[in-house]
Fold:
Amino acid sequence: MKSLKTITLYNTHLTGYLPKDWNPKLTHIDFSKNKLKGSIPTSLTLLKNLKVLNFSSNNLIGVLPNSLGTLTSLKMLSLSSNSLSGPIPGSISSISGLVHLDLGSNQFNGVIPEFISEMKELKYLNLENNKFHGVLPFNASFIKKLDVFKINGNFDLCYKHSISLEELHLGIARCDKHGMPILPPPAMNTPSSSWVDVGGGGDENGGDDDVVEKNNQVHVNRGPNKVVLGVAIALSAMVFIIIFLVLLFIC
Structure:
């Protein structure tokens, strides 16, 4: 086993935790699509010859080791579809030959580091469905040189407006002047809410008024119209007076 260089255990229903002891001659590790849990051990970063590391589609948690950048021979890093969190370690900038970086569908957060746009060998970049925020640090020329680029599903992330970026349909919002996402306007046929507090005319408990909102229009039912009610009372009074006079005349 000392001469082992490749381990591929793809979709083998593997459970438990990642080992802490590794053969230093390993160049290829693929444990993808299993049921592994726990965090990524820092001992992995001692594998100086490692070129492929694929732990995608597992149940891994925790943050990435800060020493990940010592894997300078790495060409492919795939950690998608786990529950990994925290920021992207700055040490990854040392992996100058990285071609494939897949961190999609995790819980990574913080701002996306600018050094990624300086990785000249990068062709595949997936950062979708995470919790990144701030301004996307990539220009259109960098994105266009990639074979695959995924960034949607980061709802607090936005891009600075430019015609070239607009044409790429990135799947994230544009930034306002403060670097915050500009939310799209609500659809015309979508009710804004199921309940609206109109205010006025009610007591502390809301009175007896019924307030109903449908299709963005608020209808307030406050009982009979005051004019109609007044006319009805007046007519009733007149009828009462006539009956009273008739009875008085008969008597």
